[in-house]
Amino acid sequence: MLWLRLYVAKTLKHFRVVFSVVLPEQLHDRLRLLILIIALPVSVSRAGDIEWNAVFTAYCMALFYLLSSSCLAVFVFTLFENSALAFCCCALVLAILNSIHQLPSLSIAAIPFASVVRFFSFAWHFDAASKGIVDSRDICFFSFSALLFYGLSVLVMERRRGNRTLGFKRVRFLFLFTIILLFIDSSLLYFRFDVTKQKKFSVSKYSTFLLSEVEQPLSITYYRNKELLSLLPQVRDVDEYLADFVRECDFASYRLVDPVKEKKEKLLETFSIYPQNVKTSSDATTSVSSVYSAVVIEYTGKTEVIPFASSVQTLEYQLCVKLNSLIRGKVLSCQILCANEFELEKNYAYIMPLLQNQGIYAFQTFLPSKFSDTRDTEDSVQEVSFTMFDKIPLLVLGTSAFSLDDSNDFLRFVKNGGKAFVATNPYSVDMTNWEVKENRRDWGINALQELGIYFKTTLTADSNSFEIAFDASKGTDDSLQKSEYIKYSYWPILPRQDFARDGMILSWPCAIETEAAVSDEEDFSVKVFLKTDKTAWQSKKVMGAFLTNPFAASKSAEQGEEVGAFPVAVELCKKDGLSPSVIVLGDQYCFSANILPYISSEQMLDLRSLDFIVSSVIRLNGEEELLTLKTKNNIDTSLFKIEGKNLKTYKKQTLGFVVGIPSLLVFLVWSFVFIKRKKFNMGR
Questions:
Q1: How far apart are the C-alpha atoms of 642 and 648, rounded to whole Å?
Q2: 414 with 529: CB under 8 angstroms?
Q3: What is the pTM of this model?
Q4: How far is it, in rounded angstroms, from Cα 370 to Cα 389?
Q5: Tens-place pLDDT, residues 654-677
Q6: Which H helix or E strand runs over 570?
Q7: If phi over 0 gives left and psi between -120 and 50 gives alpha, with beta otherwise, what is residue 651?
């Protein structure tokens, strides 16, 4: 073994040459660029929230990426003596390694090789760290690839020196063989840490406690196409999370199954699971792929299904909803009562499907007075009174149809422990002419007053409101079509709050006043939990009517009108209760299928108001902890710290901080080095 020791000692000399001369030249340029872009997250943090833990892991992994790419550059420049050729080859190789993972999504022929091309992709191995996950496999990939390219550089230098000895060939073989074994065995060093503030990719204490109640075999199967991993890389996190999830339970097992490869399509159809279409496009073509990404949970002969899981954002919430049903027999549920001029299926068409999509069993009930009038008809079996389900939370949309007896039944329902969400105000809106009329007699409003909740006799308006686009056209010529944008003050935008994390748009809301003494007499405590912005005001009637036409509505408060932040949602809690008993929102129109298309973009429906309903129903079911799982991955990426009037100033400051200051620093450093070198040369 003497020859091996001598050769290793000689080889280390060349390692030191590469490490002390060639590698620093490559590292310095990349390190300077990495340091300069630190200004980006710092600038964004001035305007919004930043996940600093994810920034830290991303920069740490960027250092590993920097080391690996620099070693690759050293190898290429060592391999080619022509610097221009070496530069072109290095740029080409780095471009390929940073984008090769996208090949399966661009070509069907590359799908069978998806796992191979992902392994060689530098960008793929950087993805987890950019989300705030420390994954040993990514660290090993960059470390071992750096060692590989670094060693290859030394081998090339030795070969150029004319070394053709047997010892050189043996060391070369041992080196390459060792690198291959390191890549293969890197999975033995596996660890994965979630360092995000919200612990997005970790199993929560609620889930751990729920899984501790499992006493029989629990099976979780994830059915996913092989090609889906290339189309939606984030489903990799779904697989990782499910594997971590079952580790919390000794009785749980987990399988990852490709339903197409193993011919499981018919089986999935029995669970009402069907392939979803995912659109992929390139510069030349657009294609649609049918894929599966479903989770099937089996326990004690019962089955629950998550039809499509594309990310981990709400995965834990969905899992816990299903496990609550399987293990504890608890099902999130609510009954929906439409008690205004609208119809549930037509005017509130989005509410029922969304509740069911969130794992909430929802069904429609009716006012007792209506039920008594229709019980002799053919529909009497389907039309039932809300009073028949005193243990199921009640979702009330409008109260103008309440009779005196209905209001008494509602009060009795609440006082006997029933839970209710009431969205109402004392007005009716004619959407064809934007006219708001005051209801003559609303017994539902009277019932709320007996609980200490009152509505103002004004409408709430705000200068921070939704901008409605009105199209005007002349003839059929597209060039003559114009759009006028008007800020409609009666559609105020609520700022982000605890129970409206992304804010919300209301439609003709009415502010709420509370009387704690009245609520106290009924054994309730009252609490305000949603308010308007401070720029809101209470719009009064003019000549006995509200001026609500968008073209005539006031854009600011008139003299004598009250200005400030006003409550638009309150809750009543039993003094001995932990969850709310009654939630009241002063708006019954923001959930309407007539309004939502107005406030939504062409690509996506604005679900913030509907999500508020979902969150309220979960709270009324007494599942506050489950609600935290639903919202734990919701991150506000808006620039909420900067007011609209200061946005232009912020843009200029950001450009100066991100571009101007780094450029100035680079110029100063270059000038300093240039002057020092010039003085040194003159001294010589």
A1: 10
A2: no
A3: 0.76
A4: 16
A5: 787 777 777 787 788 778 877 888
A6: strand 567-574
A7: alpha
